[in-house]
Amino acid sequence: MIPIYSQKNRIKLIVVIIALIIGAATITYTNILVSKLSEREQELVQLYAKGLRYMINAPSDDNIVFIEEEILSSNTTVPVILTDENENILDSKNISIPENISDKPDKINNYLQGEIEKMKAQHEPIVVPWAEGSVNYVFYKDSELLSQLRYYPYVQLIVISCFALVAYFAFSYSRRAEQNRVWVGLAKETAHQLGTPLSSLMAWYEYIKANPKFENEPILEELGKDVRRLEVITERFSNIGSVPTLRDENILEVTENAINYLQNRISRKVTFTVESAFAPEITAKVNVSLYDWVIENICKNAVDAMEGRGSINIQLVLLGKGSIAVDITDTGKGIPKSKVDSVFLPGYTTKRRGWGLGLALAKRIIDNYHEGKLYVKWSEVGKGTTFRIVLNR
């Protein structure tokens, strides 16, 4: 069965691809505009340089005035610096001088020399032939508008990414909240639906038990076990629908009890072993009813993976920082690496029959209600799998 979540992941992937295409198109188009504007500014500076050349050999003062007013003064955006052949500064245009050095010629000169170095990094200077075989240089750099336009698409992408990230987390939180309501509502309704027939069964059990005709009847004992089992199941669903109470429990004893109960109700061809690497009196904060449910779900999945034949080893390990690990290792068919992250998704199952909720519910119980962790520690196809439960002490 393919879970709905995998379909949602495909939709997310498609949305990301579309967003990347839009982002790439935005950057490409902006770069085209930047290239065209850069060429225009370069032509403007070259025109400025030609105007300077023409002024040297201008036949009349009128032409000089025309060039000065119509060509040289038309550049109001591109920063330029005119120097002699030794790069001594002769003139500058469209460069903002800091106010704190505006009345200090030496510092202004040093500042402009620094601007020349920046200009060299962007563009080659334009050579202007001057009198008696000497030359002048026109240094220039991108205008403020062009510089802003270069970085605009990246700023735009960052803003869009931040917005998308906030929207994603808001959506995820909303979805988790909705899932929580569904889980809680389902659990409460199940506990409610089980409550009425269970009360009736308990009354009938007590009635039959009090009848002398059924004294020492083996079936009565089995009926009592089933009634108590239904009580446990009802308690589990009730705990899911509310905040469960965690108590300091002897984790080795609780685990052994869960395995003993389970072992009598599955294939005899499956062997269980429980080992502890720490003192028997070590405790962990658990809700016994829900913890048993987790052990049961993981072990039943392991039995299915082993097709009713193999071994399950439970190893209890003391971790640092006040936590305990319960490692459940089976000799089943293992989980492919590509599926390891999917086994805890609701609806994921490899069985023909089943809802694919067992491991999803187990992870929810450990991660949400016990504030611990449940994950696949190790798995190899054809050899088996180890699930690790981390609990707080």
Automatic annotation (TrEMBL):
Source organism of this protein record: Pontibacter oryzae
Q: Name one GO molecular function term.
A: protein histidine kinase activity
A GO BP entry is: phosphorelay signal transduction system
Cross-referenced Pfam families:
HATPase_c (PF02518)
Where are its TM segments located?
A: 12-34, 151-171
The record, for SMART domains, names: HATPase_c
Superkingdom, natural source = Bacteria
Kindly indicate whether the keyword Kinase belongs to this entry. Answer: yes
Provide this UniProt record's keywords sorted from A to Z. ATP-binding, Kinase, Membrane, Nucleotide-binding, Transferase, Transmembrane, Transmembrane helix, Two-component regulatory system
Name of the protein in its database record: histidine kinase
Residue ranges of every copy of the Histidine kinase domain listed in the record: 189-393
Q: Which reaction does it catalyse?
A: ATP + protein L-histidine = ADP + protein N-phospho-L-histidine
Q: Could you tell me which Gene3D superfamilies the record lists for this protein?
A: Histidine kinase-like ATPase, C-terminal domain
Please state the Enzyme Commission number of this protein.
2.7.13.3
